[in-house]
Amino acid sequence: MPFWDPIILLSQIISIQSLHYLTLAILLPPALSLSGRSLSFYGGPANINFIMSWQELAGRSSLPSASSIDGIYSHGTRIATSMTLKSVDMSDYGRRWIIAFTWFLAAFADVYYLYTFIRKPRLILDFTLTLFGLHIILTTYYTASFPTSLFFWLVMISCSSVVILLTEQLCVRRELSQDFQPVVATEDPEDHESEPADDTHNIELTPIANTS
């Protein structure tokens, strides 16, 4: 029975999750900057919102509505003030394709991480589902809303499928190559000398008696 160490298991989960977000943090800012889209309202392309918010991947605005204070005037004199909420539509469906493409690049990086640190084909499915499952939990907590975008779920399912299929294939090929390595036997001169001499050339053939 294989030894199960919860400390090692937890450290592997944290390592894979951290490497996944680190990869997104490296790839997303230059990808968003090269897109030529204005991101001044979001704090620039390095905003953590683009990684942790499912609404950004869905192409929806996650910014709060803008507010303005208006005055109520009577004969030129302001007698009261009122706050008016104005809905600001900051949705960008082109930006979501850039984020989705970056997720696919990060998925290929996840293949390398799992191939290097997990190694066992039977564990790839569990660790991949844990990786994307934790992201769904974290993005739900970050945005205070459960993901309801079909595009978001399609990206998550597609990326996880790519990671599972590619990593399992690579791990299985590695194990097969290690299990079926040819073993070259070396001859020991002492064993060769201790073997009995081959007397096949000295065998005498006796005629078979004719019983008829």
UniProtKB/TrEMBL annotation:
GO cellular component entries: cytosol; Golgi membrane; trans-Golgi network
Membrane topology: Multi-pass membrane protein
Compartments where found: Golgi apparatus membrane
Domain of life: Eukaryota
Stretch list, region Disordered: 183-212
Entries under InterPro entries matching the protein: Integral_membrane_SYS1-rel (IPR019185)
Gene Ontology biological-process entries: Golgi to endosome transport; Golgi to plasma membrane protein transport; protein localization to Golgi apparatus
Entry keyword annotation includes Transmembrane: yes
Bilayer-spanning residue ranges: 7-28, 97-116, 123-144, 150-167
Keywords, comma-separated and alphabetical: Golgi apparatus, Membrane, Protein transport, Transmembrane, Transmembrane helix, Transport
Entries under PANTHER family matching the protein: PROTEIN SYS1 HOMOLOG (PTHR12952:SF0), SYS1 (PTHR12952)
Similarity comment: Belongs to the SYS1 family.
The protein's name: Uncharacterized protein
